[in-house]
Amino acid sequence: MAIDRFTGRQDRRTFLKAVAASGAAFAAFGCATGGAAASAPGAASRTASGVPAGLGNRIGVQLYSVRDRMEKDFTGTLESVAKIGFKEVEFAGYFNQTPEQVRSTIDRLGLRAPSSHIPLADISKDIPGQVKAAKTIGLEYITVPALFEPLMGGKVAPDYWSKTAAEFNRVGKALKAEGIGFAYHNHSFEFDKLPDGKTGYEVLLSETDPASVNFELDLLWATVAGQDPVAMFQKNPGRFVMWHVKDVKGVDAARAVATSSEGSTIQKLQKIGGSLAAVGTGDIDFKRIFAAANVSGMKHFFVENDAAPQTASSLGDIETSYRNLRTLLA
Question: CATH number for the domain including 211?
Answer without folding.
Answer: 3.20.20.150
